[in-house]
Write a structure and sequence with these properties.
With 187 residues, this protein is an alpha+beta fold. It contains 3 helices and 9 strands, in the order ββββαβββααββ. Strands 1, 2, 3, 4, 5, 6, 7, 8 and 9 form a 9-stranded mixed beta sheet that branches.
Length: 187
């Protein structure tokens, strides 16, 4: 399995930051996105070196298996800053383990843990100013993998894309929540 270090990750910075136009006092959950994302392709049987690039559209063929067989997985976690500006994550290694457990179940190649961790650290270093400081706010981190390989036949894809996108966010539930308690069915 291939490995990476921080120095292996190329960074392509945006020329048009949205940071100054972002209202950090009134953030909805998952509606605003940071300037950059981490991307990494799986092809020729191995994960390629990740890159950090401006957040933006991605191009896929209409025959990509994500559209036809739903071969996709995701996780989620948050980054916080303390009063001194130090960044904290809650159990990121557990996050990558869950992602890889899901990958195994859907016949998606597992992501090397160092790709995830080194990539996440590098991305957070680039985007540290996007971590809200307001109490109750955080930087939501959405790692996900999806099939980019093509074909209408029912089989695992041969190409995949891993992305980590970031969203400065307020509370997930901004107001009251209606709850339904189900007594007959459970999962």
């Amino acid at each position: 399995m291939n490995t990476i270090s921080k120095n292996d990750i190329k960074i392509f910075r945006t020329e048009n930051s949205k940071l100054d136009q972002t209202d950090f006092e009134n953030l909805a959950f998952g509606q605003v996105f940071s300037d950059h994302m981490l991307t990494c392709d799986f092809k020729d049987g191995i994960w390629q070196k990740p890159i950090i690039e401006p957040f933006g559209p991605i191009s896929l063929m209409p025959s990509a298996k994500i559209f036809h067989y739903g071969q996709s997985i995701f996780e989620g976690m948050k980054a916080y800053k303390d009063k001194d500006g130090k960044v904290f994550l809650f159990r990121p290694m557990e996050n990558v383990k869950r992602l890889n457990k899901s990958a195994k179940r859907l016949a998606i190649p597992e992501l090397p843990e160092d790709f995830f961790m080194e990539g996440l650290k590098a991305l957070l270093e680039v985007e540290k100013d996007w971590i809200p400081e307001k109490e109750g706010s955080s930087l939501y981190i959405r790692p996900f993998v999806f099939a980019t390989g093509e074909g209408f036949h029912a089989s695992p894809a041969n190409k995949y894309k891993f992305i980590i996108a970031l969203a400065p966010s307020g509370a997930y539930f901004a107001g009251k929540v209606k709850v339904l308690i189900e007594e007959k069915y459970s999962r």
